[in-house]
Amino acid sequence: MITPRKEIQWLVLFAATVQLVSPGLSAIGGSNVGGADDPKITPAGYAFVVWGVITILAFAYAIYQFRPNLQNASVHHKIAQKLSVVYLCFAAWLVSAEQQWLIATVVIFVVMHVLLQQVLSLLLRIEAKWTTADKVFLLLQVGVYSGWTTVAIVANTASALKFYGFSDEGDFGIIWQSVLLILAAINVLIGVAKFWKSIPFVLTTLWALVGIYFGLADEEDVNILRVITVAAIITVSVFFVLKIVLGKRTLRHTGN
Predict the structure, then answer these.
(1) HEC sequence for the chain
(2) How far apart are CA 206 and CA 234, in angstroms?
(3) Other CB atoms within 10 Å distance of the CB of residue 145
C-alpha cells in the first residue's frame, strides 16, 4: 500500500522529470522562447545555463528523497508539494512562452518566486542537521532557483511589456527598463536581507545581474542602463558583506 508520504514523493519525481525534459521537448517542437525580440535588459545567453543546473539538481533531489531512512524526512515532506508546483510551473511557463501568452508567463513566474521564497525561508529557519546530499540537492537547488527567479521575474516582465507594445528603444524605452532594473535591485536587496545565509541565493542573484550587464554590452545608447546595473551589483555585494559582518556580531553577542 502506498502511503501519503510515498505518494508525494512520486509527485515530486514526476514534476521534476517534467521540468527536466520540457526544454528538450520545446526544442523539438521548434520553440521560439527568447531571441531577437527580447528587451535590452535580458541577461546574456550564457547566464541561462543556470536553468540546466536547476533542472538537474531538482531531478537528482527527486531521486534522493526516496532514500530509505531519509534524514529530516518531515522537512522534505513539508516542502514537497510546493516544490512540485514550482517544477510544473516551469513547464507551464515554457508552454505559455511558446504560445505567446506573455501575461501568463509573468503570473507563473510570480507563483514560482513566492513558493520558492517560502521553501527557502523554511529551510533556513528550521534547526536541522543537513547531510552533504541535503546541502547539494536541496539547499543548493532551492537557493539557486530562488535567486534566479528574484531577478528573472523582472526580466520576464520586461519581455511581456515589449511584446505588448512597449518599445525598448529611445528615451521611453530607457525609462521603463531603468524602472524595472531598479525594481529588480530592490527585490534582490529584500531577498538578501532575508536569505543572506544562503550563499547560493546571493551568488545567483549577482550572476543574473552580471548577466544583464553583459547582455547590454552589444547594445547602443544604453549607458544609463549599464550604470544602474553596475550600481545594483555593487549595492547588493556591499549589503551582503554588511549582513555577514552584522550577523557574526549578533552571534557573538548572544553567545551562540
Answers:
(1) CCCHHHHHHHHHHHHHHHHHHHHHHHHHCCCCCCCCCCCCCCCCHHHHHHHHHHHHHHHHHHHHCCCCCCCCHHHHHHHHHHHHHHHHHHHHHHHHHHCCCHHHHHHHHHHHHHHHHHHHHHHHHCCCCCCHHHHHHHHHHHHHHHHHHHHHHHHHHHHHHHHCCCCCCHHHHHHHHHHHHHHHHHHHHHHHHHHCCCHHHHHHHHHHHHHHHHHCCCCCCCHHHHHHHHHHHHHHHHHHHHHHHHHHHHHHHHCC
(2) 9
(3) 30
3-class DSSP state of 152: helix
Give the global pTM: 0.91
Whose cell is 528587451? That residue is 39
Contact at 8 Å (CB) between 136 and 194? no
**Phi and psi torsions of 47, nearest 5°:** -65, -25
Give the pLDDT confidence of 149-182 residue by residue, as tens digits: 999 999 999 999 999 999 999 999 999 999 999 9
Residue 89 vs residues 64, 208, 219, 246: alpha-carbon distances, Å: 21, 20, 32, 37
| CA dist., res. 101 & res. 212, Å (int) | 23
What confidence tens digit (pLDDT) does each residue in 72-111 have?
888 999 999 999 999 999 999 999 999 889 999 999 999 9
